[in-house]
Amino acid sequence: LCIARRSLQPWDIPDGASFGGTCASDCNFPMKDFDLVGLYGIEDPPKEGVAQAVVKAQKAGVKVVMVTGDHPDTARAIATRINILKRAGDEESDQLQGGEEFAVITGSMLE
Questions:
Q1: What 3-state class would DSSP assign to 5?
Q2: What's the predicted TM-score (pTM) here?
Q3: From the first residue on, what is the mean pLDDT of each consecutive set of 10 residues in the chain (111 residues)?
Q4: Using an 8 Å Cβ cutoff, are 3 and 39 in contact?
Q5: Across the chain, how many H-helices and E-strands are there?
């Protein structure tokens, strides 16, 4: 994650001081002339035993799915980490599901 700052003039502040948007094209405040403050990373590892439980469920014939609000790349990494997806080059894995079945469905697709 990136932390940046920018001084705002009174005319830069949206009505009701309600900042909104998800990218430069739909934000209601200026998205340029920021100063980099720093970078940081976070990790929220899966609970202990989840990866083993997934494999056990798959061996029992259960189709394991993951529902998340994470970015698709993050979701793919987590799914790999907890044995829903095979790791690259892991041809001898006895997992029942693989990348060809991986699909990302966004919230807007559900509406």
A1: strand
A2: 0.54
A3: 90 86 84 92 92 95 86 87 80 48 63 63
A4: yes
A5: 3, 2
